Amino acid sequence: xxxEFKKFIARGNVVDLAVGVIIGxxxxxxxxxxxxxxxxxxxxxxxxxVDFSRLSITIGDANIMYGAFIQSxxxxxxxxVCLFIVVKVMNRFNSDLHKIGKKGKKDEEEKExxxxxxxxxxxxxxxxxxxxxxxxxxxxx
Length: 141
Prior knowledge:
This protein is mainly alpha-helical. It has one domain: Non-ribosomal Peptide Synthetase Peptidyl Carrier Protein, Chain A (Orthogonal Bundle), CATH 1.10.1200.
């Protein structure tokens, strides 16, 4: 079982997945910072600094912080919109790069150099061309 586990861990997919998770977490921190430090203050200016997190209701001894839930939903929606925009821009950028790459490959294919012909083929083509010239010359006389 230990041998199988080692084989599983050494597979490329597991390493790729681990790298993806780490980069995803770092990207999540970037998006969270973008939302918290840039977009939320701007939206606060537009809406007059509304902060739902302090809203609560007390029932008996329990303090229900429904405002924190509303604020979390609001933050999620802002994060989702920002992430959507970032992914959309990245996809467009990647699409443009992909188009450029395809165009470059077509140019390379068109410029592909054929290997030199063997000497016997060149000789046969020369004989063929001379025979064609002789036939044309005989028809003109």
